[in-house]
Amino acid sequence: MNDSKNIDAIVVGAGIAGLYAVYRLRELGLEVQAFDAATDVGGTWYWNCYPGARVDSQSYVYQYWFSDELLKEWDWSERFPAQPETENYLRHVADKFSLRKHYKFETRVAHAEWHEAEGLWQVETEAGERYRAPYFISCAGMLSAPKVPPFPGHERYQGVIAHTARWPREGIDLKGKRVGVVGTGATGIQVIQTIAGEVAELKVFQRTAQYAVRMNNERYDAAAFAKWRAQYPELRNKVHHTFAGFGFDFALPPWAELTPEQRRAELEKLWTDGSLAIWVGGFQETMMDPEINFEISEFIREKIRAQIKDPKKAELLVPREYGFGTYRVPLENGYYEAFNRDNVELIDVRKTPIERFTEKGLVVDGKEYELDVVILATGFDAGTGALTRMDIHGRDGVSLTELWQKDIRSTLGLQVHGFPNLFTVAGPLAPSTAFCNMTTCLQQQVDWVMNCITWVRGQGKRTIEPTAAKEDEWVRHHDEVANATLVVLTKSWYTGANIEGKPQRLLSYIGGVGNYRKICDDVQAQGYPGFAVA
């Protein structure tokens, strides 16, 4: 290890979590080296620059809270900002706090290994550079490892293939082109509704229909946004105690206490609000009670059908295989109406999947669809993918990749037994993997990590990791909470079902952001019971 550079902490990622981790480490007086594969900061909002990319959390809670000065000087222009504005915000943060100097961009971690004798992590980049530090903090993101479907023949295809999570920074000229979009999740919906009016032909290849909710976006001028800024002191605290880290929470009376007319009226209010409140701020029974879930699902189906002129298309676009809220709920703004256009065709690939690429396009059920551009909105290896691709080895050479190929485990989603001083911000089995306004949970997790490092150093110790018993305890609790919901009954990326061979477990803690925060705070207040400190 003589050719390695010695530092205090290594951070992977230049998105919301990574930037904040670098800031906090520097405030602790630690020397930090951070890496990101991109050419600049932004994380998700660097890579996902596809047409129509937009935040589905309200801007006034999708931000950092650590700096009053930052809060005062940044005005959001919309309720749900588009990708360029969100990326510019993160660039502004990097500039304001001089964070870029701690980064090596266009750099991927190829291998990381724990050296027990020295109590250090050695991290090697793809370029062969080596760094060693006692603390290794992954902020690589829960949705940052794209899933590319294995359609044979792609090397023969003469058109353009682009995954939405690796969209060319210079963009792709789609005007007047024949375009195919594979995938109709949250990302696919944003792309489809955005490009339908500019392309010559749009072929949408759908496997799973979605319960997309009409987004109610609004633009803000300085005066309009001032009303939200006035609520910052309240919101700064509130978001950490709601179910999903938003400024709203489950606040309705129990379903059984309302008449059918009152239930309908509440659902109409939530629909009109045009946000994720109808999912994680409406009726708490939505994800627990199958009969109530069915009634709410029927309400959403009715809203979807009303937007689609062709009854045959409507039947394909209305979900039936699963209930509302048990799958990622997208927001849309013209998605269903796009299918009323003559140039948009819907191809159902659930029963007859895409067979292969040809030189000219894609083949489904023996029919060739000629396309100039194929857009893959096919999702991610969520929660674990970014970590397993870094080839991380803990004590005794144990591979994290191999471990999670057998069983996906963690403690609080923040550490893994056998991997001392490895912190997995946005790792599996924490709310940040799926059920949280990301800025809320990522800041909470980074703060926990920094408090943990400070405590370990203050004790005159070098390492911390959960015991096997502590990890078992968290996994049991996580599974108990998950299995009380309907979410585990739906095959989706939430449970890893979109990745062949991936162990099945709900990837995100669904016990609520406020409850999770209390558990994490209690662990720290009690001196990390169940963690081995040496």
Question: What this model shows, in words?
Answer:
The protein has 534 residues and is α/β, with parallel strands linked by helices. The chain has a domain of 223 residues: 3-Layer(bba) Sandwich (FAD/NAD(P)-binding domain), CATH 3.50.50. 31% of the residues lie in helices and 16% in strands. A five-stranded mixed β-sheet has the order 1-7-6-5-19, with no helix packed on it. The chain has a five-stranded parallel β-sheet with strand order 4-3-2-8-20, with helices on one face. The protein has a five-stranded parallel β-sheet with strand order 9-18-10-11-14, covered by helices on one side. α1 packs parallel to α15. The longest helix is centred in the last third of the chain and has 21 residues. It is globular and about 70 Å long.
Please summarize the sheet with the most strands.
Answer: 5 strands, mixed
Approximately how much beta-strand content do the residues carry?
15-25%
Number of helices: 17
Average pLDDT number: 96
Number-wise, the strands total 22
Large-scale geometry: globular
Question: Which stretches are low in confidence, meaning pLDDT under 50 for 5 or more residues running?
Answer: none
The CATH C-level class name of the domain at 5-145 and 381-462: Alpha Beta
Brief characterization of the structure:
The chain is an alpha/beta fold. 31% of the residues lie in helices and 16% in strands. It has a domain at 5-145 and 381-462: 3-Layer(bba) Sandwich (FAD/NAD(P)-binding domain), CATH 3.50.50.
